[in-house]
Design a protein that fits this description.
Helices cover about 40% and strands about 20% of the residues. With about 180 residues, it is an alpha/beta fold. A 7-stranded mixed β-sheet has the order 2-1-5-4-3-6-7.
Amino acid sequence: MKKLIFTLLFTLIAMAHVCSQSAMLEVGMKAPEWKFQDADGKDFTMNSWPGKVLQINYIDPDESDLNDAFNDALDKAINIDKRINKDNFMGFGIVDIKSTWKPRGLIRMIAGNKAKKYDATVLFDYDATLQKEWGLPSDSYSVVIVDKNRIVRAIYKGYIPESENEKIIQLIISLTKE
């Protein structure tokens, strides 16, 4: 009897793990919809930017500077070099509030500074929704690129090496021309 209970329990745990793995966001799949608010309480979804390629930065506030070199290179490609058309592209941040010990007032200040620096929208995920539903790591910084049809074209988890910057920029340029 103990073996049977142990076997059933093990099977249930294994199935739960397999099911949670199948829900992970992968390149080529349609990104599941979400809804988050900005600092003013305004709701946003992916459909808030119809017809645009999206760069979704999912950020633990403790890692907010991790990919500044990438974001600086992207900002240069948009605003200085004019290689990416703003009419076809939107980059924004979603702050994973649950992954930090920092007080919300400090998080809002950090997010506000980033929003000003990159002229970007910053949204707040208070319950780690994308971390759970998309399989994104906690305590990290992830970048997800989705095309105009909301198909995931790239996922970067953690630090993006500077050697990858131009490759990602070229991907965004090609997606905006589709």
